[in-house]
Amino acid sequence: MSWDVIGQQLWNGLLNGSIYVIFAAGLSLVFGVMRVINMAHGELTMLGAMLLFTVTDLVGLAYFPGAALVVLVMALAGFLVNRVTVRPFLGHSELVVILSTVALSFVLLNGSLVVWGSGPKGVEKPFNEIVQVGGVYITTAGLLLVGVCFAAVMGLYLMLTHTKLGKKTRATGQNLLGARLIGINTTAIYDTTLIVASGLAALAGVLIVLVSSATPNLGQPLLITGFAVVIVAGMGNVAGAVAVGLFMGVTEALFGQFVSTYYRQGYLYVVMIIVLLLRPQGLFGRK
Amino acid sequence: MRLTVPAGWWLGGALLVVAALTPLFVFTNTYNRGLLVLIIIYAVAGLSLDYIMGEMGQFSFGHAAFWGFGAYVSAKLALDLGISPWIGFLAAPVAAGLVGLLIGYIALRRTRGLELAIVTLGFGVLAWTVALRWRPVTGGPSGLRQVPPPSLFGWEIRSELAYFYFSLLLLLGIVFLLSRLRTSRFGRGVRSIHENEDLAKSVGVAATKYYVLAFSFACALVGFSGALYAHHFRFVNPNLLGLDYMFIFLIVVLVGGRGTLWGPVLGSAIFVLVSEWLRALQEYRFVIFGVVLLLVVLFMPIGVFPALQNVARRMRGGKDAGGDVTPGGQDPVLEPGGAG
Fold first, then answer.
1. How far apart, in whole angstroms, are the C-alpha atoms of residue A112 and residue A110?
2. Is the CB of A92 inside 8 Å of chain B's CB atoms?
3. How many separate domains does chain B show?
4. Phi-psi region of A108 (alpha: psi -120 to 50; beta: other; left: phi over 0)
5. What is the complex's ipTM, to 2 decimals?
6. In terms of residue numbers, what domain contains B185?
7. How many angstroms away from the CA of A271 is the closest CA of chain B?
Protein backbone atom coordinates (compact mmCIF):
# COMPACT_ATOMS: atom_id res chain seq x y z
CA MET A 1 0.00 0.00 0.00
CA SER A 2 1.21 3.42 -0.80
CA TRP A 3 0.59 6.88 0.51
CA ASP A 4 -1.03 7.77 -2.79
CA VAL A 5 -3.71 5.17 -2.25
CA ILE A 6 -4.34 6.42 1.25
CA GLY A 7 -4.44 9.98 0.00
CA GLN A 8 -6.87 9.05 -2.75
CA GLN A 9 -9.15 7.29 -0.30
CA LEU A 10 -8.96 10.25 2.08
CA TRP A 11 -10.15 12.46 -0.76
CA ASN A 12 -12.92 10.04 -1.75
CA GLY A 13 -13.91 9.79 1.89
CA LEU A 14 -14.00 13.57 2.16
CA LEU A 15 -16.41 13.71 -0.79
CA ASN A 16 -18.75 11.12 0.71
CA GLY A 17 -18.32 12.55 4.16
CA SER A 18 -19.33 16.02 3.00
CA ILE A 19 -22.55 14.60 1.60
CA TYR A 20 -23.17 12.70 4.84
CA VAL A 21 -22.60 15.91 6.75
CA ILE A 22 -25.30 17.99 5.12
CA PHE A 23 -27.62 15.02 4.85
CA ALA A 24 -27.27 14.09 8.51
CA ALA A 25 -27.40 17.73 9.62
CA GLY A 26 -30.90 18.06 8.18
CA LEU A 27 -32.03 14.74 9.63
CA SER A 28 -30.62 15.68 13.00
CA LEU A 29 -32.16 19.14 12.89
CA VAL A 30 -35.64 17.74 12.35
CA PHE A 31 -35.14 15.21 15.10
CA GLY A 32 -33.65 17.71 17.51
CA VAL A 33 -36.29 20.37 17.05
CA MET A 34 -39.40 18.31 16.39
CA ARG A 35 -38.61 14.83 17.78
CA VAL A 36 -39.59 13.48 14.37
CA ILE A 37 -37.75 10.80 12.43
CA ASN A 38 -38.21 11.87 8.86
CA MET A 39 -38.15 8.64 6.88
CA ALA A 40 -38.58 10.62 3.66
CA HIS A 41 -35.36 12.61 4.11
CA GLY A 42 -33.50 10.32 1.70
CA GLU A 43 -36.18 10.73 -0.95
CA LEU A 44 -35.93 14.51 -0.67
CA THR A 45 -32.26 14.22 -1.56
CA MET A 46 -33.12 11.86 -4.39
CA LEU A 47 -35.72 14.31 -5.69
CA GLY A 48 -33.10 17.07 -5.59
CA ALA A 49 -30.84 15.01 -7.83
CA MET A 50 -33.61 13.89 -10.20
CA LEU A 51 -35.13 17.34 -10.55
CA LEU A 52 -31.70 18.75 -11.30
CA PHE A 53 -31.39 16.18 -14.07
CA THR A 54 -34.72 17.31 -15.48
CA VAL A 55 -34.06 21.04 -15.39
CA THR A 56 -30.56 20.72 -16.85
CA ASP A 57 -31.01 17.91 -19.32
CA LEU A 58 -34.60 18.35 -20.45
CA VAL A 59 -35.26 22.04 -19.83
CA GLY A 60 -31.72 23.09 -20.65
CA LEU A 61 -30.74 25.22 -17.68
CA ALA A 62 -27.05 25.36 -16.76
CA TYR A 63 -25.88 23.62 -13.58
CA PHE A 64 -25.77 26.57 -11.21
CA PRO A 65 -29.13 28.21 -11.94
CA GLY A 66 -30.67 24.75 -12.15
CA ALA A 67 -29.27 23.70 -8.78
CA ALA A 68 -30.35 26.96 -7.15
CA LEU A 69 -33.85 26.57 -8.54
CA VAL A 70 -34.13 22.96 -7.41
CA VAL A 71 -32.92 23.70 -3.88
CA LEU A 72 -35.34 26.61 -3.61
CA VAL A 73 -38.29 24.59 -4.86
CA MET A 74 -37.45 21.67 -2.61
CA ALA A 75 -37.07 23.95 0.39
CA LEU A 76 -40.56 25.28 -0.24
CA ALA A 77 -41.74 21.69 -0.64
CA GLY A 78 -40.49 21.18 2.92
CA PHE A 79 -43.41 23.32 4.03
CA LEU A 80 -45.78 20.87 2.34
CA VAL A 81 -43.95 17.92 3.85
CA ASN A 82 -44.60 19.40 7.26
CA ARG A 83 -48.22 20.29 6.62
CA VAL A 84 -49.18 17.04 4.90
CA THR A 85 -47.17 14.32 6.59
CA VAL A 86 -45.93 15.64 9.92
CA ARG A 87 -48.16 18.24 11.47
CA PRO A 88 -51.48 16.36 11.24
CA PHE A 89 -49.95 13.48 13.18
CA LEU A 90 -48.10 15.24 15.96
CA GLY A 91 -50.94 14.73 18.44
CA HIS A 92 -50.60 10.97 18.09
CA SER A 93 -47.78 8.64 18.89
CA GLU A 94 -44.31 9.27 17.49
CA LEU A 95 -44.71 6.03 15.55
CA VAL A 96 -47.59 7.39 13.54
CA VAL A 97 -45.31 10.14 12.22
CA ILE A 98 -42.79 7.49 11.22
CA LEU A 99 -45.50 5.73 9.28
CA SER A 100 -46.74 8.87 7.56
CA THR A 101 -43.22 9.77 6.44
CA VAL A 102 -42.70 6.17 5.32
CA ALA A 103 -45.84 6.60 3.24
CA LEU A 104 -44.43 9.81 1.77
CA SER A 105 -41.16 8.12 0.90
CA PHE A 106 -43.16 5.32 -0.75
CA VAL A 107 -44.97 7.85 -2.91
CA LEU A 108 -41.84 9.83 -3.78
CA LEU A 109 -39.66 6.81 -4.53
CA ASN A 110 -42.18 4.94 -6.63
CA GLY A 111 -43.43 8.11 -8.27
CA SER A 112 -39.86 8.88 -9.29
CA LEU A 113 -39.42 5.37 -10.67
CA VAL A 114 -42.51 5.92 -12.80
CA VAL A 115 -41.36 9.33 -14.00
CA TRP A 116 -37.65 8.72 -14.51
CA GLY A 117 -37.20 4.96 -14.59
CA SER A 118 -34.61 3.20 -12.49
CA GLY A 119 -31.56 3.83 -14.66
CA PRO A 120 -28.83 6.23 -13.53
CA LYS A 121 -28.90 9.68 -15.10
CA GLY A 122 -25.82 11.77 -15.59
CA VAL A 123 -25.92 15.53 -15.20
CA GLU A 124 -23.69 17.93 -17.11
CA LYS A 125 -21.13 19.22 -14.61
CA PRO A 126 -20.20 22.93 -14.65
CA PHE A 127 -16.54 22.06 -14.80
CA ASN A 128 -14.69 18.82 -14.39
CA GLU A 129 -10.96 19.19 -14.65
CA ILE A 130 -8.79 16.68 -12.89
CA VAL A 131 -5.98 18.11 -10.81
CA GLN A 132 -3.13 15.96 -9.60
CA VAL A 133 -1.89 16.82 -6.13
CA GLY A 134 1.04 14.57 -5.29
CA GLY A 135 -0.26 11.20 -6.37
CA VAL A 136 -3.87 12.04 -5.63
CA TYR A 137 -6.39 12.86 -8.33
CA ILE A 138 -8.79 15.58 -7.35
CA THR A 139 -11.67 16.77 -9.50
CA THR A 140 -12.67 20.42 -9.52
CA ALA A 141 -16.30 19.35 -9.30
CA GLY A 142 -15.40 17.50 -6.12
CA LEU A 143 -13.77 20.64 -4.74
CA LEU A 144 -16.95 22.54 -5.46
CA LEU A 145 -18.93 19.88 -3.60
CA VAL A 146 -16.74 20.08 -0.52
CA GLY A 147 -16.74 23.89 -0.57
CA VAL A 148 -20.51 24.19 -0.86
CA CYS A 149 -21.02 21.63 1.91
CA PHE A 150 -18.81 23.57 4.26
CA ALA A 151 -20.51 26.83 3.38
CA ALA A 152 -23.94 25.30 3.95
CA VAL A 153 -22.99 23.82 7.29
CA MET A 154 -21.40 27.08 8.44
CA GLY A 155 -24.53 28.89 7.33
CA LEU A 156 -26.72 26.50 9.31
CA TYR A 157 -24.47 26.84 12.34
CA LEU A 158 -24.52 30.64 12.23
CA MET A 159 -28.26 30.61 11.67
CA LEU A 160 -28.80 28.44 14.74
CA THR A 161 -26.43 30.30 17.02
CA HIS A 162 -26.48 33.91 15.91
CA THR A 163 -29.94 34.72 14.66
CA LYS A 164 -33.15 35.23 16.52
CA LEU A 165 -34.80 32.58 14.39
CA GLY A 166 -32.05 30.13 15.34
CA LYS A 167 -32.47 30.85 19.02
CA LYS A 168 -36.21 30.38 18.76
CA THR A 169 -35.62 27.13 16.92
CA ARG A 170 -33.30 25.82 19.59
CA ALA A 171 -35.68 26.92 22.31
CA THR A 172 -38.52 25.03 20.62
CA GLY A 173 -36.35 21.92 20.48
CA GLN A 174 -35.40 22.20 24.13
CA ASN A 175 -38.85 22.75 25.50
CA LEU A 176 -41.90 23.03 23.31
CA LEU A 177 -44.25 24.18 26.06
CA GLY A 178 -41.73 26.66 27.43
CA ALA A 179 -41.17 28.08 23.97
CA ARG A 180 -44.89 28.57 23.52
CA LEU A 181 -45.19 30.22 26.92
CA ILE A 182 -42.70 32.89 26.02
CA GLY A 183 -44.56 33.61 22.83
CA ILE A 184 -42.66 31.69 20.18
CA ASN A 185 -44.82 30.66 17.29
CA THR A 186 -43.79 27.01 17.35
CA THR A 187 -45.92 26.16 14.32
CA ALA A 188 -43.88 28.60 12.24
CA ILE A 189 -40.68 27.17 13.73
CA TYR A 190 -41.71 23.67 12.72
CA ASP A 191 -42.45 24.90 9.20
CA THR A 192 -39.08 26.63 8.98
CA THR A 193 -37.26 23.62 10.35
CA LEU A 194 -38.61 21.36 7.65
CA ILE A 195 -38.02 24.03 5.02
CA VAL A 196 -34.36 24.26 6.03
CA ALA A 197 -33.98 20.47 6.36
CA SER A 198 -35.63 19.85 3.02
CA GLY A 199 -33.43 22.47 1.37
CA LEU A 200 -30.34 20.82 2.86
CA ALA A 201 -31.49 17.42 1.68
CA ALA A 202 -32.01 18.74 -1.85
CA LEU A 203 -28.63 20.47 -1.70
CA ALA A 204 -27.08 17.09 -0.93
CA GLY A 205 -28.92 15.78 -3.98
CA VAL A 206 -27.68 18.43 -6.40
CA LEU A 207 -24.14 17.96 -5.07
CA ILE A 208 -24.17 14.18 -5.35
CA VAL A 209 -24.52 14.42 -9.12
CA LEU A 210 -21.17 16.22 -9.23
CA VAL A 211 -19.39 13.02 -8.27
CA SER A 212 -21.84 10.31 -9.26
CA SER A 213 -25.12 9.97 -11.12
CA ALA A 214 -28.74 10.59 -10.23
CA THR A 215 -31.01 7.59 -9.70
CA PRO A 216 -34.33 7.18 -7.89
CA ASN A 217 -32.72 4.53 -5.69
CA LEU A 218 -30.10 6.74 -4.10
CA GLY A 219 -32.29 7.85 -1.20
CA GLN A 220 -32.66 4.75 0.92
CA PRO A 221 -28.98 3.82 1.40
CA LEU A 222 -28.26 7.43 2.19
CA LEU A 223 -31.02 7.51 4.79
CA ILE A 224 -29.57 4.47 6.50
CA THR A 225 -26.09 5.97 6.54
CA GLY A 226 -27.60 9.22 7.79
CA PHE A 227 -29.16 7.41 10.74
CA ALA A 228 -25.83 5.82 11.66
CA VAL A 229 -24.20 9.26 11.61
CA VAL A 230 -26.98 10.84 13.64
CA ILE A 231 -26.95 8.20 16.32
CA VAL A 232 -23.17 8.10 16.68
CA ALA A 233 -23.14 11.87 17.00
CA GLY A 234 -26.00 11.90 19.48
CA MET A 235 -29.55 12.35 18.28
CA GLY A 236 -30.50 15.92 17.56
CA ASN A 237 -26.94 17.21 17.85
CA VAL A 238 -26.30 19.05 14.60
CA ALA A 239 -22.68 20.06 15.26
CA GLY A 240 -21.85 16.51 16.29
CA ALA A 241 -23.43 15.20 13.10
CA VAL A 242 -21.00 17.34 11.10
CA ALA A 243 -17.91 15.93 12.81
CA VAL A 244 -19.18 12.35 12.71
CA GLY A 245 -20.36 12.64 9.10
CA LEU A 246 -16.85 13.59 7.98
CA PHE A 247 -15.25 10.96 10.17
CA MET A 248 -17.58 8.26 8.88
CA GLY A 249 -17.04 9.23 5.25
CA VAL A 250 -13.26 9.11 5.54
CA THR A 251 -12.96 5.97 7.65
CA GLU A 252 -15.56 4.20 5.52
CA ALA A 253 -13.46 4.87 2.41
CA LEU A 254 -10.32 3.61 4.15
CA PHE A 255 -12.20 0.57 5.40
CA GLY A 256 -13.42 -0.10 1.86
CA GLN A 257 -9.88 0.17 0.52
CA PHE A 258 -8.00 -1.83 3.12
CA VAL A 259 -10.45 -4.17 4.78
CA SER A 260 -13.44 -5.05 2.68
CA THR A 261 -15.49 -3.31 0.01
CA TYR A 262 -18.31 -5.73 0.69
CA TYR A 263 -18.90 -4.76 4.28
CA ARG A 264 -18.58 -1.00 3.83
CA GLN A 265 -22.06 -0.19 5.02
CA GLY A 266 -21.81 -2.85 7.68
CA TYR A 267 -18.74 -1.01 8.96
CA LEU A 268 -20.77 2.11 9.72
CA TYR A 269 -23.20 0.07 11.75
CA VAL A 270 -20.51 -1.74 13.68
CA VAL A 271 -19.13 1.67 14.64
CA MET A 272 -22.61 2.69 15.63
CA ILE A 273 -23.13 -0.36 17.82
CA ILE A 274 -19.76 0.01 19.53
CA VAL A 275 -20.47 3.66 20.26
CA LEU A 276 -23.86 2.74 21.64
CA LEU A 277 -22.37 0.16 23.95
CA LEU A 278 -19.76 2.52 25.30
CA ARG A 279 -21.66 5.78 25.13
CA PRO A 280 -25.38 5.28 24.49
CA GLN A 281 -26.18 8.97 24.24
CA GLY A 282 -23.80 9.29 21.29
CA LEU A 283 -20.36 10.86 21.17
CA PHE A 284 -21.60 14.41 21.47
CA GLY A 285 -24.88 13.79 23.23
CA ARG A 286 -25.62 14.90 26.73
CA LYS A 287 -27.28 12.64 29.23
CA MET B 1 -64.32 -8.69 35.27
CA ARG B 2 -66.99 -8.87 32.68
CA LEU B 3 -68.48 -12.02 31.36
CA THR B 4 -69.67 -10.72 28.02
CA VAL B 5 -67.42 -11.56 25.13
CA PRO B 6 -65.50 -8.43 24.18
CA ALA B 7 -66.32 -6.85 20.83
CA GLY B 8 -62.79 -7.67 19.70
CA TRP B 9 -63.33 -11.41 19.90
CA TRP B 10 -66.63 -11.19 18.05
CA LEU B 11 -65.00 -9.27 15.25
CA GLY B 12 -61.92 -11.45 15.29
CA GLY B 13 -63.98 -14.62 15.32
CA ALA B 14 -66.03 -13.38 12.38
CA LEU B 15 -62.80 -12.57 10.60
CA LEU B 16 -61.52 -16.10 11.15
CA VAL B 17 -64.70 -17.79 9.97
CA VAL B 18 -64.60 -15.69 6.82
CA ALA B 19 -60.93 -16.52 6.44
CA ALA B 20 -61.50 -20.24 6.85
CA LEU B 21 -64.25 -20.28 4.24
CA THR B 22 -62.73 -18.01 1.61
CA PRO B 23 -60.43 -20.59 0.00
CA LEU B 24 -63.44 -22.80 -0.64
CA PHE B 25 -65.61 -20.14 -2.26
CA VAL B 26 -63.66 -17.03 -3.22
CA PHE B 27 -59.97 -17.80 -3.51
CA THR B 28 -60.26 -20.93 -5.52
CA ASN B 29 -57.10 -20.95 -7.58
CA THR B 30 -53.62 -21.72 -6.38
CA TYR B 31 -52.29 -18.23 -6.76
CA ASN B 32 -55.03 -16.66 -4.68
CA ARG B 33 -54.74 -19.33 -2.02
CA GLY B 34 -51.04 -18.47 -1.84
CA LEU B 35 -52.12 -14.94 -0.96
CA LEU B 36 -54.14 -16.30 1.94
CA VAL B 37 -51.09 -18.07 3.31
CA LEU B 38 -49.16 -14.84 2.94
CA ILE B 39 -51.85 -13.03 4.94
CA ILE B 40 -51.36 -15.44 7.81
CA ILE B 41 -47.58 -15.24 7.71
CA TYR B 42 -47.66 -11.44 7.75
CA ALA B 43 -50.30 -11.56 10.46
CA VAL B 44 -48.01 -13.59 12.73
CA ALA B 45 -45.15 -11.20 12.01
CA GLY B 46 -47.48 -8.25 12.63
CA LEU B 47 -48.68 -9.76 15.92
CA SER B 48 -45.10 -10.08 17.09
CA LEU B 49 -44.20 -6.53 16.06
CA ASP B 50 -47.35 -5.41 17.80
CA TYR B 51 -46.14 -7.05 20.97
CA ILE B 52 -43.27 -4.56 20.86
CA MET B 53 -45.33 -1.62 19.64
CA GLY B 54 -48.64 -2.18 21.38
CA GLU B 55 -47.64 -3.88 24.62
CA MET B 56 -44.15 -2.51 25.20
CA GLY B 57 -44.89 0.82 23.60
CA GLN B 58 -41.52 0.60 21.87
CA PHE B 59 -40.44 0.22 18.33
CA SER B 60 -38.07 -2.14 16.56
CA PHE B 61 -36.89 -1.24 13.09
CA GLY B 62 -34.91 -4.45 12.92
CA HIS B 63 -37.88 -6.74 13.16
CA ALA B 64 -37.66 -7.97 9.57
CA ALA B 65 -34.08 -9.04 10.27
CA PHE B 66 -35.36 -11.50 12.87
CA TRP B 67 -38.01 -12.65 10.45
CA GLY B 68 -35.43 -13.30 7.75
CA PHE B 69 -33.10 -14.83 10.31
CA GLY B 70 -35.76 -17.32 11.35
CA ALA B 71 -36.38 -18.15 7.70
CA TYR B 72 -32.67 -18.74 7.09
CA VAL B 73 -32.23 -20.86 10.21
CA SER B 74 -35.03 -23.21 9.32
CA ALA B 75 -34.11 -23.33 5.63
CA LYS B 76 -30.46 -23.93 6.41
CA LEU B 77 -31.22 -26.76 8.84
CA ALA B 78 -33.43 -28.47 6.31
CA LEU B 79 -31.10 -28.01 3.36
CA ASP B 80 -27.69 -28.67 4.91
CA LEU B 81 -28.47 -31.09 7.68
CA GLY B 82 -31.65 -32.63 6.35
CA ILE B 83 -33.46 -31.72 9.53
CA SER B 84 -37.24 -31.90 9.34
CA PRO B 85 -39.04 -28.56 8.91
CA TRP B 86 -40.98 -29.39 12.07
CA ILE B 87 -37.76 -29.12 14.05
CA GLY B 88 -37.02 -26.01 12.00
CA PHE B 89 -40.30 -24.49 13.13
CA LEU B 90 -39.03 -24.89 16.68
CA ALA B 91 -35.40 -24.05 16.02
CA ALA B 92 -36.16 -20.80 14.17
CA PRO B 93 -38.01 -19.13 17.06
CA VAL B 94 -35.46 -20.41 19.56
CA ALA B 95 -32.56 -19.03 17.52
CA ALA B 96 -34.31 -15.73 16.79
CA GLY B 97 -35.32 -15.47 20.44
CA LEU B 98 -31.75 -15.97 21.63
CA VAL B 99 -30.37 -13.37 19.24
CA GLY B 100 -33.25 -11.11 20.27
CA LEU B 101 -32.24 -11.61 23.88
CA LEU B 102 -28.70 -10.49 23.14
CA ILE B 103 -29.69 -7.50 21.03
CA GLY B 104 -32.50 -6.56 23.37
CA TYR B 105 -30.00 -6.64 26.22
CA ILE B 106 -27.63 -4.33 24.36
CA ALA B 107 -30.28 -1.95 23.07
CA LEU B 108 -32.89 -1.85 25.82
CA ARG B 109 -30.53 -1.26 28.69
CA ARG B 110 -30.16 2.36 27.66
CA THR B 111 -32.36 3.32 24.78
CA ARG B 112 -36.10 3.76 24.45
CA GLY B 113 -38.48 5.24 21.94
CA LEU B 114 -37.08 6.79 18.80
CA GLU B 115 -33.48 6.08 19.81
CA LEU B 116 -34.35 2.42 20.12
CA ALA B 117 -35.97 2.56 16.69
CA ILE B 118 -32.74 3.72 15.09
CA VAL B 119 -30.53 1.35 17.09
CA THR B 120 -32.62 -1.60 15.99
CA LEU B 121 -32.54 -0.26 12.45
CA GLY B 122 -28.77 -0.43 12.71
CA PHE B 123 -28.82 -4.06 13.79
CA GLY B 124 -31.28 -4.83 11.04
CA VAL B 125 -29.14 -3.29 8.31
CA LEU B 126 -26.08 -5.05 9.68
CA ALA B 127 -27.88 -8.40 9.54
CA TRP B 128 -29.05 -7.65 6.02
CA THR B 129 -25.49 -6.82 4.93
CA VAL B 130 -24.19 -10.07 6.39
CA ALA B 131 -26.94 -12.08 4.68
CA LEU B 132 -26.07 -10.42 1.41
CA ARG B 133 -22.31 -10.84 1.63
CA TRP B 134 -21.63 -14.04 3.54
CA ARG B 135 -22.01 -16.10 0.41
CA PRO B 136 -20.81 -19.55 1.62
CA VAL B 137 -23.42 -19.63 4.36
CA THR B 138 -26.30 -17.49 3.13
CA GLY B 139 -25.97 -18.08 -0.60
CA GLY B 140 -25.35 -14.38 -1.22
CA PRO B 141 -27.84 -12.18 -3.08
CA SER B 142 -29.73 -15.09 -4.63
CA GLY B 143 -30.25 -16.79 -1.29
CA LEU B 144 -31.20 -20.43 -0.85
CA ARG B 145 -33.61 -22.35 -3.04
CA GLN B 146 -35.43 -25.67 -2.89
CA VAL B 147 -36.33 -25.35 0.77
CA PRO B 148 -38.44 -28.46 1.51
CA PRO B 149 -42.06 -28.18 2.65
CA PRO B 150 -43.06 -29.80 5.94
CA SER B 151 -44.60 -33.23 5.75
CA LEU B 152 -47.05 -34.98 8.00
CA PHE B 153 -46.78 -38.78 8.22
CA GLY B 154 -45.13 -38.93 4.85
CA TRP B 155 -47.63 -36.51 3.27
CA GLU B 156 -46.02 -33.25 2.22
CA ILE B 157 -47.96 -30.12 3.10
CA ARG B 158 -47.40 -28.72 -0.34
CA SER B 159 -50.74 -27.53 -1.58
CA GLU B 160 -51.73 -23.98 -0.78
CA LEU B 161 -54.96 -25.13 0.78
CA ALA B 162 -53.32 -27.55 3.22
CA TYR B 163 -50.68 -25.02 4.18
CA PHE B 164 -53.37 -22.41 4.65
CA TYR B 165 -55.37 -24.44 7.11
CA PHE B 166 -52.20 -25.57 8.82
CA SER B 167 -51.03 -22.01 9.34
CA LEU B 168 -54.52 -20.77 10.20
CA LEU B 169 -54.56 -23.21 13.10
CA LEU B 170 -51.17 -21.95 14.20
CA LEU B 171 -52.36 -18.35 13.94
CA LEU B 172 -55.33 -19.14 16.14
CA GLY B 173 -53.01 -20.75 18.66
CA ILE B 174 -50.73 -17.70 18.61
CA VAL B 175 -53.60 -15.26 19.11
CA PHE B 176 -54.80 -17.35 22.04
CA LEU B 177 -51.28 -17.52 23.48
CA LEU B 178 -50.90 -13.76 23.15
CA SER B 179 -54.25 -13.08 24.78
CA ARG B 180 -53.20 -15.22 27.75
CA LEU B 181 -49.79 -13.59 27.86
CA ARG B 182 -51.30 -10.12 27.98
CA THR B 183 -53.25 -10.89 31.12
CA SER B 184 -50.49 -12.90 32.78
CA ARG B 185 -48.30 -11.49 35.52
CA PHE B 186 -45.53 -11.00 32.99
CA GLY B 187 -47.82 -9.33 30.47
CA ARG B 188 -49.21 -6.93 33.05
CA GLY B 189 -45.68 -6.15 34.13
CA VAL B 190 -44.71 -5.25 30.58
CA ARG B 191 -47.86 -3.18 30.21
CA SER B 192 -47.10 -1.30 33.43
CA ILE B 193 -43.66 -0.32 32.14
CA HIS B 194 -45.34 0.95 28.99
CA GLU B 195 -47.72 3.07 31.04
CA ASN B 196 -45.10 4.54 33.30
CA GLU B 197 -41.64 3.07 33.59
CA ASP B 198 -40.59 4.95 36.72
CA LEU B 199 -43.77 4.07 38.54
CA ALA B 200 -43.47 0.42 37.48
CA LYS B 201 -39.91 0.31 38.79
CA SER B 202 -40.94 1.89 42.05
CA VAL B 203 -43.39 -0.93 42.73
CA GLY B 204 -40.75 -3.52 41.98
CA VAL B 205 -41.11 -4.38 38.29
CA ALA B 206 -37.65 -5.15 36.91
CA ALA B 207 -38.26 -2.94 33.91
CA THR B 208 -35.25 -3.71 31.75
CA LYS B 209 -35.43 -7.43 32.43
CA TYR B 210 -39.11 -7.53 31.51
CA TYR B 211 -38.51 -5.49 28.39
CA VAL B 212 -35.58 -7.61 27.25
CA LEU B 213 -37.61 -10.79 27.75
CA ALA B 214 -40.63 -9.31 25.98
CA PHE B 215 -38.42 -8.18 23.10
CA SER B 216 -36.88 -11.61 22.86
CA PHE B 217 -40.32 -13.20 22.85
CA ALA B 218 -41.42 -10.97 19.98
CA CYS B 219 -38.26 -11.86 18.06
CA ALA B 220 -38.93 -15.56 18.59
CA LEU B 221 -42.47 -15.16 17.28
CA VAL B 222 -41.37 -13.30 14.17
CA GLY B 223 -38.64 -15.90 13.64
CA PHE B 224 -41.38 -18.51 13.61
CA SER B 225 -43.29 -16.52 11.02
CA GLY B 226 -40.10 -16.41 8.95
CA ALA B 227 -39.81 -20.21 9.11
CA LEU B 228 -43.42 -20.48 7.95
CA TYR B 229 -42.51 -18.29 5.00
CA ALA B 230 -39.39 -20.25 4.12
CA HIS B 231 -41.12 -23.62 4.02
CA HIS B 232 -44.09 -22.37 2.09
CA PHE B 233 -42.51 -20.19 -0.55
CA ARG B 234 -39.53 -22.51 -0.49
CA PHE B 235 -36.76 -19.97 -0.85
CA VAL B 236 -34.98 -17.42 1.31
CA ASN B 237 -32.97 -14.39 0.24
CA PRO B 238 -31.41 -11.36 1.91
CA ASN B 239 -34.38 -9.13 1.04
CA LEU B 240 -36.34 -10.94 3.73
CA LEU B 241 -34.18 -9.14 6.28
CA GLY B 242 -34.51 -5.77 4.60
CA LEU B 243 -36.50 -2.61 4.98
CA ASP B 244 -39.22 -3.57 2.50
CA TYR B 245 -40.57 -6.26 4.78
CA MET B 246 -40.01 -4.01 7.76
CA PHE B 247 -42.33 -1.48 6.16
CA ILE B 248 -44.85 -4.19 5.38
CA PHE B 249 -44.99 -5.31 9.02
CA LEU B 250 -45.22 -1.71 10.14
CA ILE B 251 -48.14 -1.14 7.79
CA VAL B 252 -49.80 -4.36 8.98
CA VAL B 253 -49.61 -3.23 12.61
CA LEU B 254 -50.47 0.42 12.24
CA VAL B 255 -53.20 0.05 9.64
CA GLY B 256 -54.74 -2.87 11.49
CA GLY B 257 -54.52 -1.22 14.88
CA ARG B 258 -51.80 -1.11 17.46
CA GLY B 259 -52.31 -2.82 20.80
CA THR B 260 -55.23 -4.96 19.62
CA LEU B 261 -54.88 -8.67 19.10
CA TRP B 262 -56.94 -8.89 15.95
CA GLY B 263 -55.72 -5.63 14.47
CA PRO B 264 -52.57 -7.03 12.87
CA VAL B 265 -54.57 -9.95 11.46
CA LEU B 266 -56.98 -7.57 9.79
CA GLY B 267 -54.13 -5.25 8.82
CA SER B 268 -52.35 -8.13 7.12
CA ALA B 269 -55.45 -9.07 5.14
CA ILE B 270 -55.94 -5.46 4.11
CA PHE B 271 -52.33 -5.07 3.08
CA VAL B 272 -52.13 -8.24 0.99
CA LEU B 273 -55.50 -7.78 -0.69
CA VAL B 274 -55.14 -4.07 -1.41
CA SER B 275 -51.67 -4.47 -2.86
CA GLU B 276 -53.03 -7.35 -4.94
CA TRP B 277 -55.94 -5.30 -6.26
CA LEU B 278 -53.56 -2.50 -7.09
CA ARG B 279 -51.40 -4.87 -9.09
CA ALA B 280 -53.44 -4.05 -12.19
CA LEU B 281 -52.11 -0.51 -12.01
CA GLN B 282 -48.61 -1.85 -12.52
CA GLU B 283 -45.89 0.59 -11.59
CA TYR B 284 -48.39 3.15 -10.31
CA ARG B 285 -49.58 0.80 -7.63
CA PHE B 286 -46.90 1.67 -5.10
CA VAL B 287 -47.55 5.36 -5.59
CA ILE B 288 -51.23 4.83 -4.96
CA PHE B 289 -50.44 2.50 -2.12
CA GLY B 290 -48.44 5.25 -0.44
CA VAL B 291 -51.31 7.69 -0.86
CA VAL B 292 -53.81 5.16 0.51
CA LEU B 293 -51.50 4.55 3.46
CA LEU B 294 -51.25 8.25 4.15
CA LEU B 295 -55.03 8.62 4.05
CA VAL B 296 -55.54 5.66 6.38
CA VAL B 297 -53.07 7.12 8.86
CA LEU B 298 -54.69 10.52 8.52
CA PHE B 299 -58.28 9.43 9.05
CA MET B 300 -57.79 6.36 11.20
CA PRO B 301 -54.64 6.97 13.22
CA ILE B 302 -55.70 4.32 15.73
CA GLY B 303 -56.02 1.73 12.98
CA VAL B 304 -58.91 0.07 11.20
CA PHE B 305 -59.69 -2.61 13.78
CA PRO B 306 -60.15 -0.30 16.78
CA ALA B 307 -62.23 1.95 14.53
CA LEU B 308 -64.47 -1.03 13.74
CA GLN B 309 -64.62 -1.87 17.43
CA ASN B 310 -65.81 1.63 18.15
CA VAL B 311 -68.52 1.28 15.52
CA ALA B 312 -69.59 -2.02 17.10
CA ARG B 313 -69.65 -0.46 20.55
CA ARG B 314 -71.64 2.50 19.35
CA MET B 315 -74.19 0.18 17.76
CA ARG B 316 -74.63 -1.43 21.15
CA GLY B 317 -75.04 2.00 22.71
CA GLY B 318 -71.62 2.19 24.33
CA LYS B 319 -68.86 4.72 24.12
CA ASP B 320 -65.67 4.85 22.09
CA ALA B 321 -62.67 3.35 23.75
CA GLY B 322 -60.36 5.30 21.51
CA GLY B 323 -57.90 2.49 20.86
CA ASP B 324 -54.29 2.76 21.72
CA VAL B 325 -53.45 6.40 21.25
CA THR B 326 -50.47 7.08 23.40
CA PRO B 327 -49.46 10.69 23.09
CA GLY B 328 -45.72 10.56 22.68
CA GLY B 329 -45.14 13.64 24.79
CA GLN B 330 -45.71 15.75 21.70
CA ASP B 331 -48.16 18.06 23.31
CA PRO B 332 -47.49 18.60 26.98
CA VAL B 333 -50.37 21.04 27.19
CA LEU B 334 -52.86 18.25 26.72
CA GLU B 335 -51.00 15.58 28.60
CA PRO B 336 -49.27 16.75 31.77
CA GLY B 337 -46.57 14.34 32.79
CA GLY B 338 -45.98 13.21 29.24
CA ALA B 339 -46.22 9.50 29.88
CA GLY B 340 -50.02 9.57 30.21
1. 5
2. yes
3. 1
4. alpha
5. 0.79
6. 11-315
7. 10
